[in-house]
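Task 17 of the worksheet. Students: predict the tertiary structure of the chain below and write it out as structure tokens. Keep your answer in the requested format; marks are given for formatting as well as content.
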Amino acid sequence: MSTANQPELQSAAVPEDSGGQMSFFEHLTELRKRIINSLLAVAIGAFIGVYISQHIIGLILRPMLKALHDAGLQERLVYTHPAAYLNLIIMLGLYLGIVLASPVVLYQVWLFVAPALYRHERGVVVMFVGSSVLLFLAGISFGYFFTLPYILHFLVSFKGPVEPMISINEYFDLILMILLGLGIVFELPILIFFLSLFGIVTPQFLWKNFRYAILIISIVAAIVTPTPDAMTMLIFMAPMVGLYFVGIGVSAAVVRKRRRRDLPNAAGGQT
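Model answer:
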């Protein structure tokens, strides 16, 4: 065999870069390092979050105060325990700290898993991390600017013969449930993306079972919705249905790309 062809044969035999190989104890050491770095980032983020939480509380209270103003009620919230407001500042600071530290935490996760991935899989992970953060923030924004004002106006409209005395801690629990729930709901296209990537669902399957998806979406909306009225439930359902159709498009793109990648392999096998 000619020696001129040996470099070509060697390069053809080299598999796609899949990262370095590590022993079990090296994996444990690397995992401990990433966990420590993530915890340090969360601690620093929480310290900053507690410092700025007193300024963020005004932003959180704005929808509730506006709902009280529109209902002709006194614009104030109360706390019923001496340490309630301090606990609220600390809890809000912790949540803000997690949000502030999330890029560092995701980067640490990336540093841990990247060496074990193929080159094309690393691109998928980067897209997954970026899309997850953007969709989660989009869900929170939708809840704050659209869903939350309607729900609060609906709730305070039932005044009756008594005047409401709203606890700031209970109000914080309510908006946390709404915003966090919508943030998770907006991750639906990411879930469909990975189900399609592993061949569990296809766009044809998703379209064929659309009516069952509507049923599941209705049940989820009924559980997450804090009020019994149908309008609030529809407000929760509308983005979920829209995201389901986005997921169908994402699934179609994944299937199309997989078929395009498999065609050369099939043609090579036939030759």
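Marker's comment: Confidence is low (pLDDT under 50) at residues 1-19. The two ends are 23 Å apart (CA to CA).
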